[in-house]
Amino acid sequence: MSCGVYYVRHSIVFDPGGCYENQFDRTNGRIGYGTSCCHHVQQCRNGSTRLQGERWSLVRSRGSGGQNGKGARWTREMAAAPSVSFKHSMTAPSDPDDPWVSVEITEQGSRREYQEWPLDKAVIAFDGERVWSEGWKRLNPPKFMVNMAYYFVNLPWVTQDPGVNLIELGEGTLPNDDKTYATVRMTFDAGVGDASEDYYLLFIDKETGLLKGTEYIVTYGAMLDLMGAPEDATFLGPLTKVFDDHVDVAGLTVPTTYKTYAPNGMVYGEHTVENISFTRKFDPAIVEMPAGAVIDESSNERKKKS
């Protein structure tokens, strides 16, 4: 069973009769802000993991734990959803006449995914083992495109994935925003995904609990080659996504508009997310590779230049 997440600040030595302050409670996509008495935290302390370098712990709630039990309840509902589906559009200000538009459905758990690109008359799919495509003419490798929009739309819940580490809670600001946010650094165990060297710095609004943005890098070797990165470069970025608008869908808070900023602060992409659903049944037949489809053989290893 999936668990809710809590960030609990240890300002004093653990005292069963006292209280901790500044609790961040990840419930329905928000990371709440408040206080938590220690007897409640003690109930949840099994499996807690200290965040390295800071006086914080990541506490996973069990059973009905959490703020009125919502932390575990909402996470169970997200995990139990058969799929996540939406329409995602990205327009680059540098090329407004060439929008990237996909209609996607992703199976929870397996992350099998089917993307239809209506303007490109193309399809990208992940069948659980292979990434294949039909009609894909853009330069980005299909492997890089799979689960990408899903990841950012569902980032609060992705923190629950096996092999995810949350460390170094601090503070930071976002592009064109002087407000100070709580920050959590998200890293991955070796071998998790195609690019386990990636990191995400999560920016959490202390007042509303919303995930307001994330700074991240791209380490996928094929993308570094595509972008002409120097041979000794190990990543692109950092890029920053700032979530501007949100909507509640079946009680889960998800972003509907966001921007991607380049390292120089310029807007790299403007995104919209529509037709979000957590209830559609995922049909495995849609990701079965048809004759003539192309398997993406790109990899995280960079090509050596002759």
Q: What would you call the shape?
A: globular
Strand order of the largest sheet: 11-12-13-14-15-16-17-6-7-8-9-10-18
Calculate the terminal CA-CA distance, rounded to whole Å. 50 Å
How many distinct folded domains?
2
Per CATH, the class of the largest domain reads Mainly Beta
Could you tell me the CATH topology label of the largest domain: outer membrane lipoprotein receptor (LolB), chain A
What's the multimeric state? single chain
Question: Can you write the helix and strand succession as a string?
Answer: EEEHEEHEEEEEHHHEEEEHEEEE
Number of helices: 6
Proportion of residues in β-strands: over 45%
Mean pLDDT: 75
Q: Return residue spans where pLDDT drops below 50 for at least 5 consecutive residues.
A: 1-74
Structural class: mainly beta
Helix content: 10-25%
CATH superfamily of the largest domain: Lipoprotein localisation LolA/LolB/LppX
If classified by CATH, what would the architecture of the largest domain be?
Clam
Taking all Cα atoms into account, the compactness measure Rg is 20 Å
Largest sheet: number of strands, sense, barrel closure: 13 strands, antiparallel
